[in-house]
Amino acid sequence: PGEASAPDGAAAAAAAAAAAAGPCSPPLPAWMRLYFYGMHGITLDILLSSAQHFASTSDPRMLGFSSPYLALAHCLTHWALEKLYLHKRSFQGRPLLFHLLLYPSAYVGLQGAVRGWLAAGPGDALLGALLLYALALYHSQVLLKRLLRLQYRRAAGSRARGLHGLPDALRFLFYGMHGFLDEIVFTSLFNLVEKADGGLAGHTSLWSFLMYGSCSFVVEKLYVHLHDHMGWSTWQRIPIYILFIYTWEFTWGLALRRYGACSWDYSHYPLNVMGLITLMYLPGWLFLSYYQDVLSNVLLRVHCPKNRSQKANFANGKLKTT
């Protein structure tokens, strides 16, 4: 009897700990991971192209370039890389082989093909391969390792409320990257209509990351206050968002223009104020304000595991929680 009581006591303690931790939430759904992969890929496109552009022009606007086509390509290639990463347990006895050779080789091959670096000259191709190798290590050792541990609470009343939700810094990064996505999609569609050449190339500025990231972060705080604490409906909140967005865009534009770093000029549009804001874009801001509510509601349900026993696990290349 004395020997049997020890396992029983351990089982009871484990059950109590599991009950205290609460039920496990599922990992991030596939659509959310695909969305992030496309957005993250566009961000890397912009960072790399902006560095090249600034090195050759010293343009303080820090322009970067990408396209919706590349966003789709990033979604698909990173999805394939995730599937490969989920099989890493097959190499438990040889982790260095997987992390230093197999995964980086797949990453360099796929991303090199997407970016067209493999067709460059020998010197440029070698430099590009080395850069992609470093990005592959970041992707497997930092990005995927943390992204696949995140969990998503689907129930409407089960938002993380900040206790174990994403830190403010990570939400700021998400909103900044989403600002890049917004700019690339908008400018590519605008260029498609204006030039009518069938191209979908878009551009943005590195300063947009800070502008969109900070703006959306504050609007998220407004969403929590107006929705959760004051009970305002969506259409009551949106005018507040619009007023704040226009104020934010005007303030940032005024500051950037002083140093020649402002990447937009609406002087040729009617209903503009100093070329920094225009009411012509009001329909677009209305849509993005509504979409911001959707993003905030989704992002506030994403959280980190409460303890190390509640984390994403891998079995036969599939993602699950334990």
Automatic annotation (TrEMBL):
Subcellular location per the Swiss-Prot or TrEMBL entry: Membrane
Transmembrane segment boundaries: 96-114, 126-148, 205-226, 238-257, 269-291
Any single Gene Ontology cellular-component annotation: membrane
Membrane topology: Multi-pass membrane protein
Keywords: Membrane, Transmembrane, Transmembrane helix
Family, similarity comment: Belongs to the TMEM229 family.
Stated name of the protein: Transmembrane protein 229A
